[in-house]
Write a structure and sequence with these properties.
0% helix; globular; mainly beta
Length: 97
């Protein structure tokens, strides 16, 4: 599954676009230190033509750890080479704004 994160500018912080490929009909969310790991706050929207799911989140400057929740299973952002170990013995993806 290809995943990608890219950033843009916004006066209230930067707009960070979280993107992941998933099967049609999947339930996909992004959660992280920027939202207290809330698993339902940021659902990703599907683009049927590309098979990509995306959500844009405004983030203030800082370092944030995150993961995708795809159909109830946690996944790191494999398109983002910056990862950090977590307390659960797995990895979190990292984005710095």
């Amino acid at each position: 599954m290809k995943k990608r994160t890219k950033t843009g500018k916004d006066p209230q912080g930067k707009q960070v676009c979280f993107r992941i490929a998933a099967e049609a009909g999947s339930k996909v969310y992004v959660a992280g230190s920027f939202n207290g790991w809330n698993t339902t706050q940021y659902p990703l929207q599907a683009d049927a033509a590309s098979g990509q799911y995306t959500a844009t989140v405004a983030l203030l400057p800082g370092r944030y750890e995150y993961k995708f929740l795809v159909n109830g299973e946690w996944q790191v952002d494999s398109a983002n080479p910056e990862w950090s170990p977590n307390d659960l013995g797995s990895l979190n993806s990292v984005v710095t704004v």
